[in-house]
Structure formats: structure tokens, C-alpha cells
Amino acid sequence: MTAEQQAVKPNMQQPSHETQKYGEIVKLPNGLSEKVCKESVALLNQCLADTITLRDMYKKHHWQVVGPTFNQLHLMYDQHFEAQVLLVDILAERIQLLGGIALAMAADIAETTKIARPPRGREPAAVQIRRLAEAHEHIIVEARKAAKAVDESGDDGSNDVFVSNVLRTNELQVWFLTEHLVAASPVAS
Ligand SMILES: [Fe+2]
């Protein structure tokens, strides 16, 4: 191989190493202390793991739903999935802009989330909705606590994410979901 050829050949022997460990903060000029950023990042990462889990539960149910309301639920689940996708990006980028490291990979999410794992198999629509609503409620309760904590530490941006994005989106989706569980609904079992 000539020197010119060698110069353009991709080097696939890159050594694996981390430039920032998970949990470490790279201090950025944002007027917040490293301690405050670290505390906010921990709360945001827990919310991120739970949000990714809920996002994926929506896709599972989108694929597996059956019954007389198939089309309605199939479409609603995907609308809610898309809104959760946006939340995931808002949370992850908030973590990064605070100098932290956002969780990303499925195995790390599975280890971190507090949302109960659903079975691999198919469940009735009413059970799908109940599971989703419980996951939402968990995220809502934790988002309210996190919003207060970051407000008290002076991290107004994270407070806005927890309230304006996470809380408001999840509250709205709970409403849409649970109206399907009234006695008159063909979904209710
Ligand atoms: Fe689809």
C-alpha cells in the first residue's frame, strides 16, 4: 500500500476509552454550580429512563392492540409515542447542556427505570391502557417532586422542562387514555 493509500484508509483499531464518565459534570458557563447541575442531571436522567420506557410501551401497544377500537387506539398510541419522542430529546439535551451525560441505551434504561416491565405477550386493550396510565402517573408524581427540587436549587430551565414539557404532556395523555376506560366504552372489560 502506498503512503497516499494508507492516508485515506480508515483506521478501525481505535482504542475504546471514555472522555467523560457517566455521573461526571463538565462545568459550562451557565451560572449554575457543579453541585446544582449534578443534582438536576440525576433527576433528569431518572425522568429520561422512565420516559423512554413509556415511549417504548406505546409502540408495543401500537403494534399489539386488538379489538373493536383497533384503529382508534392504534393511531392514538402512535400520537402519544411521537410526543414522548420529543420529550426524550428535550430531557436528553437538557442533561447534556448542563454538562452531564444522558442515558441512551436500552440496557441502561432497563436498569434505571422505575416503571414495571410489561410481559412480552399481548394483553387486552383495557390492560394496555391501565399500564400506560400507571406509567404516566409515576412520571407525573416524580416530575412534580423534581420540579420543586430544581426550583429550590435555582435551576429554572430544568423546572420549566419538568413542568411545561413533562408534566403537561403526561397529564394530557392520561386524560386521553383513561376516557377509554369508562363503563360505556367498548374497551372497558
Ligand atoms: Fe405504525
UniProtKB/TrEMBL annotation:
<dbReference type="InterPro" id="IPR023188">
    <property type="entry name" value="DPS_DNA-bd_CS"/>
</dbReference>
<feature type="domain" description="Ferritin/DPS">
    <location>
        <begin position="42"/>
        <end position="182"/>
    </location>
</feature>
<comment type="similarity">
    <text>Belongs to the Dps family.</text>
</comment>
<dbReference type="InterPro" id="IPR012347">
    <property type="entry name" value="Ferritin-like"/>
</dbReference>
<dbReference type="GO" id="GO:0008199">
    <property type="term" value="F:ferric iron binding"/>
</dbReference>
<feature type="region of interest" description="Disordered">
    <location>
        <begin position="1"/>
        <end position="20"/>
    </location>
</feature>
<dbReference type="Pfam" id="PF00210">
    <property type="entry name" value="Ferritin"/>
</dbReference>
<dbReference type="InterPro" id="IPR009078">
    <property type="entry name" value="Ferritin-like_SF"/>
</dbReference>
<dbReference type="GO" id="GO:0016722">
    <property type="term" value="F:oxidoreductase activity, acting on metal ions"/>
</dbReference>
<dbReference type="InterPro" id="IPR002177">
    <property type="entry name" value="DPS_DNA-bd"/>
</dbReference>
<protein>
    <submittedName>
        <fullName>DNA starvation/stationary phase protection protein</fullName>
    </submittedName>
</protein>
<dbReference type="InterPro" id="IPR008331">
    <property type="entry name" value="Ferritin_DPS_dom"/>
</dbReference>
